[in-house]
Structure formats: C-alpha cells, structure tokens
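Let us work through a complete example step by step.
Step 1: write down the sequence.
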Amino acid sequence: MFENVAIVGGGPAGSYLGYCLAQKGIYASIFDDSHPREKPCGGAISPFALRKFPILEGVPYSKFIGKMMVVSPRGRETMISVPKDNGMVVSRKHLDMYLLEQAINHGAKLIQERVASIERKSNVWLIRTRDRELTSGLVIGADGVNSVVRKAIVGRIPKQHIAACIGYFAQGFDKDYGIIRFLEGLNGYAWVFPGEIHSSIGVGSDTPKANRLRNYLNEFVEKYVPNMEKPSRFGALIPAIKDPGFFDIPCSGQNWILIGDAAGHVDPVTGEGILYALWSAELAAKAITEDDPSRFDTLWRSEYYPELVKACRLVRIAYNARVLEFAILVASRSKVYAQILAELIAKEQPYRGLLKRLITRCPRAVLDCTIR
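Step 2: predict the structure and record it as tokens.
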C-alpha cells in the first residue's frame, strides 16, 4: 500500500481525498499555498450532491434554498421548486476551509507551498516548490484547470475545452430564491445565488465569447440586482468539455491520478464541479486503498462517465435560444415540465433518459397548457 502520497491542490477534490485516505490510515501530504480562499464560483450544491456526500451539511455559513427563478433569453420567467430536498449555497472559502480542516484533523499534512513542477524519476516523483524538492511514490493532481500535474503527465486541457466566468461577491440581494438567466448568443448563463455571507453574482460561457461577458454581466446586474452593495469582483477559468473524445484521455496510471477540475470532470452543461470533485476524490481513495491507482479510470468511467458524455452531446441543444425559449415557455405553463426542469437543475434527472421522459410526458404537458 502507498504510504507516501502527495496531493497537489487543497481545494474540495484534494482536501476530500486527503480526508478519505486518512479514514483508511493513509496520511497524505497536501500541497497548497492558497486555500482556503474565496474562489470565483456560484457555490450552489445540488440536493443530489448533499445526499451523496453528507459531510457537506456541516459546512459553516451555508444557506439552503428551495426555489429558483429560470429566465429565457427573451426574458420569460418561471419559478421552480427544488424537488425532495433544498439545494445549498456555500461560500467557497468556508467550504474549502471546512474540507481542508477535516483532512488535517484526521491526519493529512498540509504543506503550504506552491508546486512549480513535477518530474518522474524511475519509480518516484520529484515535486519542486520554490524552496525545495521532495519525492513521492504517488502523486495526485487536484490543482484545477491549469493543473501542473496534468501538464507534466498527459498535457494541458485544450483551450477549446475551457470556459470563463466573471462576477461579484456582493450584498444587497435579499431574496429566498436563486436566479438563472440564459442569454441569447451565449453558451452559458448568468446567475445570482443568495448566500449567508454574501451573494454570488456572475456569468459564464465558453472562452470564444469571454470578451462579451462584461456586457452580459452588467445587463444582468442592472435588471436583477441593481442595489447590490460593495461588489468584490472575481474571474476564473473552468473545464467545459465539448467533445466526448476528451474523456478517452486516461486520468490515472501506476503512480498518478487526476481528479476534479484537473481531470476535466465538470458538468459541461451546468458547470457544476463540486459534485465531481468529491465524487472523483472518493473513487481515487478507493483505488489507492486497493493499491491500484490505475483502477481509478475504471471506477469513474463506471459511475459517472456516461453522464458527462451525454452532457457533452447536449450542450449545443441545451443552449440553443429557440430550444430555451420553448422549454421555459412550456415549463411556465405545465407543472409536469416544470418538475422535469427543476429535477435537471437539482441533478435528480440524469441527462440519460431525459429525451425519453420528455416524450413520454408530452401528452400530459399539452393537457396542462390546454387547460391553462
């Protein structure tokens, strides 16, 4: 069994992996010089993620929300209720701090240094920081979209598979619901999620449209949060995989694993990454404790690969302006389709099987619209 495990990155993926390994008696070293920090992120956690990872319910300063306003590109609004359980909005600073503390309290070691490069020498990894060089028998890349570990082993995530988001952490939005606004000409959306500490307001899209994001954001803020106070700006890059073939690239080998954003494991439609950060960390821990890191590829492909691939294939349809207008119109008039939309947002409705369900429920939706 591996005893010398180096986790590069102390965000949710790296910290949760450190925690899971410590539960099995493996005490990893987590390299990170920046966490916990207030990361550019909506901070929304789906009911599905909360049920799958109960540890999230302990995150301090969290806010539960049960409703979401969804707005079409032309401004049609419909309010939907999150099914079964409320979703949660967290401050990324408090989420990351909580998970990192859980890892450290159970035995993981935090090395507050930035990893500049890694290099494989025989059967060990040379890990270089600004101040020193260390060795490890197993290295985990949990260091985000621009992963140093990924770059050294399989190469960077190509630019066409990266999205940009900008926004604010702000006060002044006192609603008990979140807002998602789809914007015409944008493969993405604007959002505002109310938090306990602050609200997260932002807009994200694939990088070819990044130069237009500021205008989209200003329009959204003026319409929905005109009285926000003391905005603190943010900007970030996240994986946004458009070609299912990307997922053919291995994420593990004999003595290495990539997890979370470093693996590109983010929902291509919604941009949700926290769920897959924790999910990939849990599966990586399983592979490591079985003394076979390369098995991680088998595990994640079995559990959530089909969903990520399906999402890749749905991106163009999901952000087609006409499709969005029609979907939100029908959802505003049909309880059946409103429920399906809510379950999609809450991760209760998988992408696989979505089309079949829409077709099956179409007669009922037509009846709802007719009665109205």
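Step 3: interpret the result. The chain is about 35% helix and 25% strand.
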